[in-house]
Here is the input.
Amino acid sequence: MNAAAGSIRERDINPATRKANTETVLTPRFYTTDFDALERIDLALVRDEWNQMMSEFDNDANVDHFERPDWFSSEVKELPGPLQAEFLDFMVSSVTSEYSGCVLYADIAERVNNPEIKKLMQYMTRDEARHAGFINRSLKDYGIPVDLGYLKRNKKTTYFKPKFIYYATYLSEKIGYARYITIFRNFERHPERRFHPIFRWFEQWCNDEFRHGEAFALIMRANPHLLRGHNRLWIRFFLLAVFATMYVRDHSRPEMHKAMGLDPTDYDYEVFEVTSQISKQVFPFTLDIHNPVFRARFEKLRLLALESDAARQAGGVIGALRKASCLLRSAGVLASLYMMPVVRNELPEKVRMAPAW
Here is the structure.
């Protein structure tokens, strides 16, 4: 009886929920970690800055920000087919990413007794739940809200060591800020291109993302061993992985970027620049994103992703072999990018930053 009910439930989920539950190289994942290690976090080296940040969380500047006014629905409209498909793909990816953070932070808050980490995770759970819920209401306007309960029960969970959580989450929060503020500033200049009302919320919204990144910056700076020795190799890996994923994924949405009036390559490198400038607060180097060789290799990754997608759609043995070849060549390109020299910088004495872009 239960198995049959589960089978029916699987059949009946909508396309957005199915997409959110699908595991690919580019889709957001759900994570778990070593909770005992989080108990031992020491914040003594950044005490003053930590207290200031926690006061900001407590003041909750966005407490009323994610309420939908009456006029919101009147601005929601059917979009041209390819644009609507790409926009909804963007929204599903975004709600999955926000909800992934919500689930992880709530899990940590429940299972960790360290009072400072518990309180931080409760605040971040609050913020991410608002973000996910706000996006999902917009998906509901199109009749395809993601079933977040189904996602929590069924999406595969990946184990990450705490330091990997710090590196990856710090970067995802900061690059999320850079993405949202760049889009918001673009629509300030060109309001006629704003094809959905959700973009009006991006400025204050991305300040939540910025503050979340600040929390992980403080944790890393309070534990300097996370930024030294072999851990520098992991930092380089996550910088490259996050940037490469964004580059390939954004170029798969040409109609959305065209509608916004943004060239995806120019947009991505603007976001990379902002993220790189921010990350100097905690990482001892940045990627050399202005190097023509770096850019050429990123473009090669994009072309290989297109070739791999064509092979997947072709199917059959030949398609599978072509796809495997693309994956192997992509790994080679990533390895060559990983070996490129980085741009070193000195860490500032004060960690905290303000969103200034």
Notes: The domain at 2-291+340-344 is CATH 1.10.620.20 (Ribonucleotide Reductase, subunit A). Residues 1-8 have pLDDT under 50 and may be disordered.
